[in-house]
Design goal:
Elements: H1 3-11, E1 20-22, H2 24-30, H3 43-52, E2 56-60, E3 63-67, E4 70-74, E5 77-81, E6 85-90, E7 98-103, E8 107-115, E9 118-125, E10 129-135, H4 139-154, H5 178-181, E11 189-193, E12 209-214, E13 218-224, H6 230-233, E14 236-241, E15 247-251, E16 254-259, E17 262-267, H7 270-291
Antiparallel strand pairs: 1-4, 2-5, 3-4, 5-6, 6-7, 8-9, 8-14, 9-10, 11-12, 12-13, 13-14, 15-16, 16-17
Length: 305
C-alpha cells in the first residue's frame, strides 16, 4: 500500500466490474459537468440507511474516467456515513447495489488524491476497501463526509464537527481544522515543510507544501499547493488510525507507516520525513506499551483429594 500515492493510483486503476469500457468519441458526449444543484440520493440513501444507519450521503453522478484499460464509464455512485459505519452504493442493477461496508471499529486509514477534475477517496478497513471516485468540484461535500467518518470511528460518542472547516480557511490554519484534528486540537503535534520555489524549467516539478500531524486519534499527512484554499479546492491526504500503527520508517523522500496488514508511504521530502519519524515514533512506541494487557494472576487451585 502507498499512502497518497495509493489513492492516486486508484484514480487510473483498471475498470471495476460495474464499469464499462468506451471509446473516446463517446466519452466526450457522456462526460458530466457540475450540476446547478445537488441531486437527492433517493434510493441510495434508503439502501445505505438500511445497512449502516441514516447519516450523510455524497452522490457522484455517472461519469467517465481514465483507466489502465482506456476510458471507462462509471454509473452513479453514493458513499454513505451512517451511525454504524461507511458503505459504498453503485447503481448497477440488476446486481446488488451495495459494494461493501466498513464498520467504524474496523477503519484503518483514509486516503484522498486529486488530479485535475478527477478525485478519489479510499477507505481501508480490516476486511474490505471502499474506493469512491468523483469529480473534483464535489470536494467540499466529500471533505465534510470524511471528517464525519473519521470522527465517528476514532471518537465514538464525542461531539462531531459540523463540517471540515470554513471554505475560506488558509493553509496555515489547516492543521487545527476539523478536517485534520477532528475538533480536538489540544493534543495535536504538528510538523510542516514549506514548498520549494518554482523551478526554472516547466518540466521540473516543484514540491508542494506538506505537513504531518499526530493527533490523539490519527497520524495525518497532507500535501497542498499554496495559493488555493484547501477546503474549497482540495488536498492530498492520508490519515491512519493511531492505534493501528506499529512503526514508522523512512525511505528517501517517503515516510513509511507500518500497520498490521501492510504499509503506507507518503512523499514528504527527506527532511520532513526524517523529522516526523524522529519526533513521532517514540510517542507511538509509548502508545504500544500502554496498550499491553497484563494477564491477571490465576486464582490458586484447590488441592485435590
Amino acid at each position: 500500500m502507498s499512502g497518497i500515492g495509493g489513492a492516486r493510483a486508484a484514480l487510473g486503476a483498471a475498470a471495476e466490474p460495474w464499469e464499462i469500457q468506451i471509446g473516446r468519441d463517446l466519452a466526450d458526449r457522456l462526460d458530466t459537468k457540475p450540476p446547478s444543484r445537488w441531486s437527492r440520493p433517493g434510493a441510495a440513501a434508503d439502501d445505505l440507511a438500511d445497512l449502516v444507519g441514516p447519516g450523510e450521503v455524497v452522490l457522484a453522478p455517472s461519469a467517465t474516467r481514465p483507466s489502465s484499460d482506456g476510458v471507462v464509464w462509471t454509473p452513479e455512485q453514493a458513499l454513505g456515513a451512517g451511525a454504524r459505519g461507511a458503505a459504498l452504493w453503485v447503481d448497477d442493477l440488476p446486481y446488488p447495489r451495495i459494494i461493501g461496508a466498513i464498520p467504524y471499529p474496523e477503519l484503518i486509514a483514509v486516503e484522498h488524491a486529486m488530479a485535475g477534475k478527477h478525485s478519489c477517496l479510499v477507505l481501508t478497513g480490516v476486511r474490505t476497501t471502499l474506493v469512491f471516485r468523483y469529480r473534483s468540484w464535489a470536494w467540499p461535500a466529500v471533505a465534510d463526509l470524511l471528517t464525519h467518518v473519521r470522527s465517528r470511528a476514532h471518537r465514538p460518542g464525542a461531539a462531531e464537527p459540523a463540517h471540515a472547516g470554513p471554505p475560506s480557511l488558509g493553509w496555515e490554519r489547516l492543521p487545527a481544522s476539523p478536517l485534520v484534528a477532528l475538533g480536538h486540537t489540544r493534543h495535536t503535534r504538528y510538523l510542516g515543510a514549506e514548498p520549494e520555489l518554482p523551478r526554472r524549467w516547466l518540466w521540473q516539478q516543484s514540491r508542494p507544501a506538506a505537513f504531518v500531524a499526530l493527533t490523539r486519534q490519527e497520524l495525518v499527512a497532507v500535501r497542498h499547493v499554496l495559493g488555493r484554499r484547501p477546503l474549497r479546492h482540495g488536498v492530498q491526504l492520508l490519515a491512519v488510525a493511531r492505534n493501528r500503527i506499529t512503526g514508522l520508517g523512512t525511505r528517501g523522500d517517503r515516510l513509511r507507516i507500518a500497520v498490521p496488514a501492510g504499509r503506507y508511504e507518503v512523499d514528504l521530502g527527506a527532511e520532513l520525513a526524517a523529522e516526523a519519524r524522529s519526533r513521532f515514533e517514540p510517542m507511538l512506541r509509548a502508545d504500544g506499551r500502554r496498550r499491553v494487557v497484563r494477564k491477571a494472576p490465576q486464582a490458586p487451585k484447590a488441592p485435590q483429594t
